[in-house]
Each structure stands twice: as C-alpha cells, then as structure tokens.
Amino acid sequence: MSAVRTVLGDVRPERLGVCDAHDHLFLRSPQLPGQELQDATAARAELDAFRAAGGSAVVQWTPYGMGRRAADLPPLSRACGVHLVCATGLHQAAHYAPESLDALRGGPAELFVAELTEGIGTSGVRAGLIKVAGGFHALDAHARWTMTAAAEAHHATGAPIAVHLEVGTGALDVLDLLCGESGVPPYRVILGHLNRSPDPLLHRQAAEAGCWLAFDGPSRAHHATDWRMPDAMRALAEAGFGHRLLLGGDTVVAGARSVDGGPGMPYLLRRVRPRLALALGEELVERVLTDNPGRAFAVDWR
C-alpha cells in the first residue's frame, strides 16, 4: 500500500492534508553560524502557528549531520497535531566538517537505507525521503557522489529524492544523473527552489521529464525572483503540469521563524496561498497543497 512515511508511522496520502512540502524545524550548519534552528520550544510554537493557519503536514528536508533532532519530532507531531516527515541524505560539502564526511567514504547509500527502513540513530524515527543537493549550474564530485548513493537507496527502498538546486540552477544536470545514468523514475525526483531561477524553458523541460517541481522558499523576501513565482506556476499549469507542482516555505534560520518576527511557516498559507489563488485559481492551489504532496511523498515501501 502506498503511504507517506511520517515520524509517527506510515500515513495514507489522502490523509496528509495541507502540506508545506519543504521546510525545516531544526537545522544547523557552519555556513549559518549563530542562526541555528535548535530550540524545541520555538519549533513547537512555529508548528502551532502553522496549524492555526490551516496547515496539517510539514516535510522537513534537513538531512544527515545537520541537526535534525529526530527524537524530538514525534512528540512535536503529537502535541501540535501536524504530520512530520523527516529526511535522510546529505547536503553540499560546505555544510559539514570534513571529518564527518570522511566517516561515510565507504558509501552513504547504506546509511540512507538504514535511516529509511530501520530508523535514525536510536530515535526509532524512520526517514521518509532522501535529500541531496546540486551546485551552481553544475554538479561537483560531492554532488555526484551523494546523488549516486541516493539513487542506490531509492532502488532499495522506493524513497523519493528531494534535490536542493543551488539558486534554482542545474536541474537538467540533476535529471541526467539521477534519471538518465542512475535509472531513478522521474516521478520519484523532486526539484527544489525552481522559484529562484525563473527560467520558463528550463521549468518546461523539467516538467516534461516527469519530475516534481517545487517552488519552495517564498518566505525569503530578499530573492528578487519571488514576485515571478505566480506567473511561473501559472505557465506550467496552463501547459498541463499543475499536477506536478509543490509549495514550501524553507525556513532555514531562527530569525525567519514567525515566532521570532519573520514570515515563517504560516506565511505560506497566510500570504502566498491567496496570492497564488489569484493567479492559478483556488481549486488548483488547493490541489498543489494537498493532493500533490500526498502523491509526491507516498511510496510503496520496500
């Protein structure tokens, strides 16, 4: 049976509800000193605010080694009444101390599979997706290494692969590697941050390949491309790809949380949703927030 793997167990896709398809409750990186998401009380308040705005599910893309705090996720999910999905995988090399990657040189695929099927550390929480990352308009050796491992883990488990595209670039290189060289079905690949590179031709090519198209990061108001997101999504919907669109908030630093004065997770529903409804129609936006995530993250787990 196809199911979304949440931190409290597998859930049928139609029960996921209104979903933030890419966000973070906990995250730390040497690239973001002093801006860590590591306060469980603040995470609880943010989830409560998201729930009050009408949200019912959050997919956390924080991968291995970046402060996921997997053991904290089940009690947060129960307390707030929000489905949570946790990730395995690896981000760009810059987000890790070299010694932490050295321990995985034997092959991260084994780690990914274990976290998807057995659980993350001693938490017992099983991951529901694999998060990897590309580079700026290219794939470096680290990206190729992690994506190849992600493909191996996908073939072993069926798990979807979510890809951070650096400033929205490199999508076709990612698809060449994952779907071309490694044989991952395109419908199991989620391309993130397409809103940051509003290239209609690239969007159309990625859509025609059959993958999921995530516009995730509207809370980052400093991105000059954000105002183009409604037009980009409308163009894809009019071309027949509305069933492949996803939305997320991608809150990566403490100051971006709504409870700390930023837009945070509720912004996706409070401001982005009505704006997109004007461009796409309320019916399609509802499907993008509910039906599409349920299908994107649901797997016949092996």
Properties at a glance:
302 residues, alpha/beta, TIM Barrel, six-stranded parallel sheet, globular, hydrolase, Metal_Hydrolase, Phosphotriesterase
Describe the model:
- One of its GO terms (molecular function) is hydrolase activity.
- Its cofactor is a divalent metal cation.
- Keywords: Hydrolase, Metal-binding.
- The modification N6-carboxylysine is found at residue 131.
- With 302 residues, the protein is an alpha/beta fold.
- The protein has a single domain (3-127, 198-299), classed as TIM Barrel (Alpha-Beta Barrel), CATH 3.20.20.140.
- The chain is 39% helix and 15% strand.
- The chain is built from 11 helices and 12 strands.
- It has helices at residues 40-52, 73-80, 98-102, 108-117, 141-157, 171-181, 200-209, 229-241, 266-280, 282-289, 291-297, and strands at residues 3-6, 9-11, 19-23, 57-60, 83-85, 87-89, 129-133, 161-164, 189-192, 212-216, 245-248, 298-299.
- The strands form 3 sheets. A 6-stranded parallel β-sheet has the order 6-7-8-9-10-11, with helices on both faces. A 3-stranded antiparallel β-sheet has the order 2-1-12. Strands 3-4-5 form a 3-stranded parallel β-sheet.
- Helix 4 runs parallel beside helix 5 (141-157), helix 8 (229-241) crosses helix 9 (266-280) and helix 9 packs across helix 10.
- The longest helix has 17 residues, at 141-157.
- The model has no long low-confidence stretch (mean pLDDT 95).
